[in-house]
Amino acid sequence: MRRTAVLVCGVIAALALAACGAKTESGTPVAAGGSAGSARGAATFGTVADLASAVATSSRSKQSAHFSTEVTTAQGTMKGTGVYRQDASGVSAQYTMSTPQGEMQMIVVPNAVYLKMARLAPVTGGKPWIKVTPDGTDPMSRALGGLLTAMQEQADVTKAIDRIKAAGTITNTTRETVDGVSTTHYTIKVDMAKLAEVEPDPNLKQMYQAAIQQGLRTSDDDVWLNGDNLPVKFETSSAVNGQQVHGTASYTQWGEPVQITVPPADQVGQFPTR
C-alpha cells in the first residue's frame, strides 16, 4: 500500500512537469519587454506574474489541450499522454502513464480521482479502478485524499505556472522553434524556500519543506509559449541529495474537443479497510 501511494505521488508530480518528444533548436536572445518576432509578434514578459496571467487568459479561452509527459529520476523514467479540459465545474483530465511498476491510468474530475493499475486488482475484488475522494474512509483516500486538490490543479498547466509566480525570476528569454512551432522560451529560477512560504495548500507546503530539508534550494523551470501565449512545452530540473530529477511536458491541439469519462460504478473497487 505504501509503495503504491508513493508511486501515485510521483504521477501527481509528473502532471506538473515537462515533455515527450519536444525538439528544441538553438535560440536567439530577446530583451525583456521586447518583441518575440518569430513567435508571431507576441510581446515578451519581464516577470513570472505577467507571464502566468497571460497564459491563464489564453489557455482558459481554449479550455482544452492534449499533453505528453516524461519524468526521469534515479528510480527510472515515467512517460505518459493525456488530455485535459477546464470549464465552469473545474478541471478534468484523463492520463495514461508507463512506470517501472507497470502502466497507470488516472482520471481527474472536480470531486474525485480514479486510478487504474493491474497491481491494484487483486486487493480490490478484481475491480480495475479505485476512487480517491477528499472525505473517503478507504485506505487510499485516507493516504491521498489530502492531495486531491493538488492532483486537480497539477492537471492544469496554468496552475503549475501560477504557483511559481511569487518565487520565480525570469533569467533569460530567447526565440526558439519547438516541433516546428515558433516560440518564446523563458528560463525561470525558482526559490524553493519562497515557494514553500507562499504555498496555501498545506500538503504541498509540507512536500516543499521536506524537499528543502533534503537539500533542494532552487528549481530550474523553462516555459515555451507560442504567439498566442499558449504553452508548447514546460520543463523543470532540480537536484535532491545529489540526485537529478528532470521532467518535461508538451501541449498540443489547444481548443480541440476532448472526451473524459469516469469509469462505471461496477468497475470501481476499494481497498479493504482491514
From TrEMBL:
KW Signal (keyword) present: yes
Matching InterPro entries: LolA/LolB/LppX
Signal is among the record's keywords: yes
Signal peptide: 1-18
Gene3D superfamilies, sorted: 2.50.20.20
Top-level taxonomic group: Bacteria
Official protein name in the record: Lipoprotein
Key words, A-Z: Signal
Native organism: Gandjariella thermophila
